[in-house]
Amino acid sequence: MTMQNNQKRMRVYFTGVGGQGTLTATTLLARTALEAGLEVVAGEVHGMAQRGGVVESVMLLGGWRSPKLDLGEADVMLGFEPLETLRGLPYLKKGGAVFSSSDPMPPVSVSLGKAEYPAMNRIKASVCEVAGVCHFIPCRELGIQAGSVQSGNTVLLSAVCASGVLPFGVDALEEAIKKFLPAKLQEVNLKALELGKTALKG
Q1: Antiparallel, parallel or unpaired: β 10-17 and 92-101
Q2: Residue ranges of the Pyruvate/ketoisovalerate oxidoreductase catalytic domain (predicted)?
Q3: What tens digit of pLDDT does each residue of 175-184 get?
């Protein structure tokens, strides 16, 4: 890693649904960046309660003072649920990178029949109109394949690390998993990491 890449300023936006572990994933990626020698600021985005269970957080790399993100500023978006990826699109910088789960977790309004879940091809088309890099990955499905649906988050983190858009790679994420996750969770998350790398290539 060159010093120039190491000092690159970058904003990463995370969005998902309550209970998915979005904040845990944010913390793991922030710790990965810290271990890679980067300056990191991370935190929740305010206002999630008013948005009906949506969980949003940010990670800023390269010397920011506070975890603040305005519309159109995110270089990278990680969407742990496809509809929330679509809803979070205004935060993405034109030509930014999007890595999203393609496995829907319909909100309560859809479950109650008060709203319709948009077709996946429409979600993908809308996202790829804005994003310069656009990947949709079956994270829940691959998490289950690894041994735990929650490890689907690691699938997504692995894919973004493997893509080269961040100033650190999958090796750094692997080391962070081994260092920061409880021993009983490491094996399944390391399997998910491998599945994430493979999914990106596919």
Answers
A1: unpaired
A2: 18-196
A3: 999 999 999 9
